[in-house]
Amino acid sequence: MIEAMAVLFGLGGALGGGLGLAAYYLRVEGNPIAEEIEGLLPGTNCGQCGYLGCSAAAEGLAKGEIGVAMCPPGGKTLASQLADKLGVEADLSGMKDKGPVTAFIFEDLCTGCTKCLKRCPTDAIVGASRQMHGVVDDACTGCEVCEEVCPTGAITMRPVTDTLMTWHWPKPDTGLAA
Amino acid sequence: MSDLVGGPHAHSGSSISRTMVLVLVALTPATLFGFYEFGWPAVFLFLVTVTAAIAAESFALALGGKPQKPFLLDGSAVVTGWIIAMTLPPWAPWWIGVVGSFIAIVLAKHAFGGLGQNVFNPAMIARTVLLISFPIEMTQFLTPQPMFTGGSPGFFEGLEITFAGHTAFDAVSSASLLGAIKTQLGLGVPVNEVVGGSLSLTAMALGIVPGSMGETSAVAILLGGILLLATRTITWHAPVAMIVTMAVLAGLFQAIDPGRYPGPAIHLVSGTFLFAAFFIATDYVTAPATGMGKLIFGAGVAALTFIIRTWAAYPEGIGFAILLMNAAVPLIDHYVRPRIYGRTRSGEPIRYEEI
Amino acid sequence: MKMFRIKGGIHPDERKDLAAGKAIETVPLPSLLRIPLQQHIGAPAVTVVEKGDEVKKGQVLASARGPVSAAIHAPTSGRISAIGRFVAPHPSGLPGQTITMRPDGKDEWGELPAPIEDPFAVEPDVIAERVAASGIVGMGGATFPSAVKLGLRNRNKLETLVINAAECEPYLTCDDRMMRERSEAVIDGIRILRHALGVERAIIAIEGNKPEALAALKAVCSANQFKDVLIARVPTRYPMGSEKHLVQTLTGKETPARALTADIGVVVHNVATCYAIREAVRFGRPLISRIVTVSGGAMKRTGNFEVPIGTPISHLIDHCDGFNKEPDRLLLGGPMMGQPIASTRTSIVKGSNGVLALCPDETPARQTMPCIRCASCVSACPCGLTPFEMAGHIRKEELDAAVKIGLLDCIACGSCAWVCPASIPLVQYFNYAKGKLTAQQRAKHKQEETKRLTQFREERMERQKRAKQEAMARMKAEREAKKKAEAEKKRAKQETIGA
């Protein structure tokens, strides 16, 4: 009787202590999934999701505070990647995939106020005060921040069109193979 | 000009329906011989089974919301129905054929996703389900009564046998060849006494023995098999692997105890073995993709068949053997793959010493 | 000569008889030439002429940019009428940078580099330089800059030059005709190339279905007693013209995955490239025209034509009296690996070996059925792949799984799709997957770049903020110091007053 109790208590104590030690010494700093998620996000901290930057948004996603369809620049592609990563079922059918876009500045409307220039998270807009601004397509993530701040509505988002360098064959029609 | 079409812009002209037609042509000798051997009831059962297969296909397509025409015209349903008919006792009642066709098409094929998606051979599923569900109807064989001879039922008697379950007809009902051998061996009769008389090897090879409609004549089946090989519809791998494995196993055991174990010749020409080797084990959908995989598959089918025939309760084990090996196909295909050009079997680029 | 077997392959309907009997014809100059700047693998050429310039035949219009590129020369004399975007000879039909030129009809040669009198006496590098200056690219369709291939001499230990004269694509007969009609020049070009690579022997590989070409080349070799050129009759089987498979047929050696044939000591050049190299070396003429097979059931007249680069395809078709019926497909290249073209306004480029107008009975449009796992594609694949399995993965967007079983080892020869009884567009699945993977990589690269930019910006903002704060602090301190000083002064003043 006493023997059995001793064994069980001993076992319980040893295992519990082990777990406690493991929890203390092997603790993982930060949320690892949040870091992985952050790697997927555009990383431009545009703030359209409502968080202050992409790492905050990644934390939010990891905690489940926000749905996967939260990032306009990332679009549907990112949403499905996030759903995969988080292992959640997400109905993305309603989410329209506008595809990648980049900013475009109408020359005759731009007053050269430099507001967009200051806000652009990737420095994709070049120009100077009272001079026409231009967009460096390769650096633009289509985050739409500039569109919002432009006082004259001179900026619009245009879908990125295929070029000879980027075009590839479309996926074939699957025919009768369901 | 049409919309953007990717290459190649030439085609061999092969098609699924062409393949299926070739299989049907190859089945014809054995079928005609079956009709001749077993008379009008066999013809009616055959027609009912094939019609039911087409009806089942149409029904399943409608249920799945798939277009009827391309799938009905691809010929796969006809092939399935035809093969089921070939494996039935020739005087079985009509509903056996209908039930078999529906099981094959609806359950074994369309429940898995339709053409090309089934894991198990539909005809073998049908045969096995029927055998387990209706053991009496499925094991009532008869000694051949060649058409237009005295013993053969006429057109209307044939109708009665197939559709009215006419049992009064005094055909000599008997067990199939393998069943007979199994029973006799079970009674302690040595092999050489069992095989003899009406069960001579020649008779078995020609198919003048009790058995299913289309699988008794080894000669007629071989003829079809050669046609399939010659037209490159099938490859040699699975049939050869099956025949060699069966011959080796049967020979080995006969050498151990000639009185207890029938030899290779009996195993090869009896039952559905050759039929399965050329028409079932070569089914594209349910066999491995590579030559090596097909060899493994064929050898496995033959070995399982031998085991079931020799030690299990059923006289014929090929249906089970095929289904068991079907289940192993994804595994075989996963591990047995061709070597990629410029790479070793393990997938690493080839290395040359001098570079 | 001993041949080695290759795996897989198919025997498509050759249909070479449509044009094989037709001698090479020259085509009259069109009223406009449209010369794309991207006619080769690598970076597009950079224009060195301007709109309105008068140019002479053979003059450089655009020069090579970077190590893998090729210069482009004026196919005739005339005036540059535009430099801009124009629909490219590409399945997408998207525009690319194009020089438009209006021939003046005089066809006057400009100043050409001096002919190399005895090519066998000069250093190989001299020939390589000439080849680069002449804008020569692989003319079998791959359009890889030839000078780069000549440079492999410095990187690998080479033993053999293989001349690809297999011409395994159905319909095409341009190489066949060139070998028959210009056999002397072809052999000369091959020997120059052999010298330029510094190898002992050259093997010309011709498929058995071209006995006349074989005989013509043999006659030249035996008449001149050339010991350094061997002529090999390779089996007629598609894709014999695939570089790695041709080398294996001839040498028995398999090129390792992701490596070049040069890594096993063999360099392969197309036979038409050899001719172009000879023209450049012996006469200083750059690559400004090529031989094109025009064929197909929808053509009124078929044949082989020497066409200036930049000739609109419509001009070539008109020269062949147009179509006898509406073609089902219009292709640049052969039926197996050729590309459909969106418009006949696009032009013949350096890699265009054929223009095919196929009618429906030649390219039956078929209903795609589900895969029945017949594994015909597995037996047909010359690369040891399982095409049906790869396509299955790609259909479900499992691109990584497709890569794992060898997608990137696929040479897109089309043998699998040719045999497929279910008519599954396997090649398009693979092209789609390869393209999508590249696009994904590009997107990932861009994401990394933009992240870096954001970081820079944040650091800069931080710096600016700090600088501002520091400035503010400094100003405050200064102000305070000033105040203090003033207060001091005031007090001192008051003290002096008080005193």
TrEMBL record, chain A:
<feature type="binding site">
    <location>
        <position position="116"/>
    </location>
    <ligand>
        <name>[4Fe-4S] cluster 2</name>
    </ligand>
</feature>
<feature type="binding site">
    <location>
        <position position="140"/>
    </location>
    <ligand>
        <name>[4Fe-4S] cluster 3</name>
    </ligand>
</feature>
<keyword id="KW-0472">Membrane</keyword>
<keyword id="KW-0479">Metal-binding</keyword>
<dbReference type="GO" id="GO:0022900">
    <property type="term" value="P:electron transport chain"/>
</dbReference>
<feature type="domain" description="4Fe-4S ferredoxin-type">
    <location>
        <begin position="132"/>
        <end position="160"/>
    </location>
</feature>
<keyword id="KW-0004">4Fe-4S</keyword>
<feature type="binding site">
    <location>
        <position position="150"/>
    </location>
    <ligand>
        <name>[4Fe-4S] cluster 2</name>
    </ligand>
</feature>
<dbReference type="InterPro" id="IPR050294">
    <property type="entry name" value="RnfB_subfamily"/>
</dbReference>
<keyword id="KW-1278">Translocase</keyword>
<dbReference type="InterPro" id="IPR017900">
    <property type="entry name" value="4Fe4S_Fe_S_CS"/>
</dbReference>
<dbReference type="Pfam" id="PF14697">
    <property type="entry name" value="Fer4_21"/>
</dbReference>
<comment type="function">
    <text>Part of a membrane-bound complex that couples electron transfer with translocation of ions across the membrane.</text>
</comment>
<feature type="region of interest" description="Hydrophobic">
    <location>
        <begin position="1"/>
        <end position="23"/>
    </location>
</feature>
<feature type="binding site">
    <location>
        <position position="143"/>
    </location>
    <ligand>
        <name>[4Fe-4S] cluster 3</name>
    </ligand>
</feature>
Automatic annotation (TrEMBL), chain B:
<keyword id="KW-1133">Transmembrane helix</keyword>
<keyword id="KW-1003">Cell membrane</keyword>
<keyword id="KW-0249">Electron transport</keyword>
<keyword id="KW-0288">FMN</keyword>
<comment type="similarity">
    <text>Belongs to the NqrB/RnfD family.</text>
</comment>
<feature type="transmembrane region" description="Helical">
    <location>
        <begin position="203"/>
        <end position="229"/>
    </location>
</feature>
<keyword id="KW-0813">Transport</keyword>
<keyword id="KW-0812">Transmembrane</keyword>
<protein>
    <recommendedName>
        <fullName>Ion-translocating oxidoreductase complex subunit D</fullName>
        <ecNumber>7.-.-.-</ecNumber>
    </recommendedName>
</protein>
<keyword id="KW-0997">Cell inner membrane</keyword>
<feature type="transmembrane region" description="Helical">
    <location>
        <begin position="94"/>
        <end position="112"/>
    </location>
</feature>
<feature type="transmembrane region" description="Helical">
    <location>
        <begin position="42"/>
        <end position="64"/>
    </location>
</feature>
<dbReference type="GO" id="GO:0055085">
    <property type="term" value="P:transmembrane transport"/>
</dbReference>
<keyword id="KW-0472">Membrane</keyword>
<keyword id="KW-1278">Translocase</keyword>
From TrEMBL, chain C:
<feature type="binding site">
    <location>
        <position position="420"/>
    </location>
    <ligand>
        <name>[4Fe-4S] cluster 1</name>
    </ligand>
</feature>
<keyword id="KW-0479">Metal-binding</keyword>
<keyword id="KW-0004">4Fe-4S</keyword>
<feature type="binding site">
    <location>
        <position position="416"/>
    </location>
    <ligand>
        <name>[4Fe-4S] cluster 2</name>
    </ligand>
</feature>
<keyword id="KW-0813">Transport</keyword>
<dbReference type="GO" id="GO:0046872">
    <property type="term" value="F:metal ion binding"/>
</dbReference>
<feature type="binding site">
    <location>
        <position position="413"/>
    </location>
    <ligand>
        <name>[4Fe-4S] cluster 2</name>
    </ligand>
</feature>
<keyword id="KW-0408">Iron</keyword>
<dbReference type="Pfam" id="PF13237">
    <property type="entry name" value="Fer4_10"/>
</dbReference>
<keyword id="KW-0472">Membrane</keyword>
<keyword id="KW-1278">Translocase</keyword>
<keyword id="KW-0997">Cell inner membrane</keyword>
<keyword id="KW-0677">Repeat</keyword>
<feature type="region of interest" description="Disordered">
    <location>
        <begin position="443"/>
        <end position="499"/>
    </location>
</feature>
<keyword id="KW-0411">Iron-sulfur</keyword>
